[in-house]
C-alpha cells in the first residue's frame, strides 16, 4: 500500500495519474495548500520541504517527495512506462527533466502572473507569456510525427499532460498547436488519466480545447 499526500495541482495530478496507470494500491490524503496544510507539523515530519506530493510506500519503507523522483521510483518499482535501457530510456528521462526544469516552472509562473495577478506586473506577464508559447511550440514540434513524447506512452507523458490541462490559465489556444491538442485529447481519454484527475477530489471535468 502507498499513501499519497497531495493536492489538485499539476504536480499532484501527475503522481495520482501515475499510480492509476501503474495499477498500484494507494490511499490519497488531502493536503489543502490553500489552507496551509503543507506547513502543519505532522506534514513537515513527512516532508520538511513543505511541498506536495509525497508518497510513503509501506512495502519498501520509502518516503519520497518531488514528483519527478516519485515517477522514476514508481517506474523502477514496477518495470513499466520507462524503458530499461537504450536511447528510449534516456530520452524518456530527458523529457521528464524538460517538464521538471522548464515546462512546469515556467507555466507555474504563468499561472501566477497571467491568471492570479493579471495587470500587476506587465513585464513579467510579457516574459512568461512569450516563454510559455515557446515551450508549447517545442512540445508541438516534438509531437509532430509521434503519438507520445518518446516511442511509447511513458512517465514523461504523465508528467507533462497535467500541466497542459491548465492551458486556459496559460492563455493558450490548443488549436494553434494541433500536435499538442491531438496528444492531449488522446491521453485525456485514458480511464486512468480520468481517475487520477479526480484525486484527491473532483474539481471539474477535464478541460476540452
Give me the CATH fold name of the largest domain.
Glutathione S-transferase Yfyf (Class Pi), Chain A, domain 2
Largest sheet: 4 strands, mixed
The count of β-strands is: 4
Q: How many helices does DSSP assign?
A: 8
Radius of gyration: 17 Å
- N- to C-terminal separation? 36 Å
Walk me through this protein's architecture.
Pfam families: GST_C, GST_N. GO terms for molecular function: oxidoreductase activity. InterPro entries: Glutathione-S-Trfase_C-like, Glutathione-S-Trfase_C_sf, Glutathione_S-Trfase, Glutathione_S-Trfase_N, GST_C, Thioredoxin-like_sf. The protein is of the alpha+beta class and 209 residues long. It has 2 domains: 2-81, Glutaredoxin, CATH 3.40.30; 86-190, Glutathione S-transferase Yfyf (Class Pi), Chain A, domain 2, CATH 1.20.1050.10. Helices cover 52% and strands 9% of the residues. The protein has 8 helices and 4 strands, in the order βαβαββαααααα. It has helices spanning 10-22, 41-44, 67-78, 86-116, 122-142, 155-164, 178-188, 191-197; strands spanning 2-6, 26-30, 54-57, 62-65. The protein has a 4-stranded mixed β-sheet with strand order 2-1-3-4, covered by helices on one side. A hairpin with a 4-residue loop joins β3 and β4 (62-65). α1 (10-22) packs parallel to α3. The protein is globular. The protein starts with a strand and ends in a 12-residue tail after the last helix. The model has no long low-confidence stretch (mean pLDDT 96).
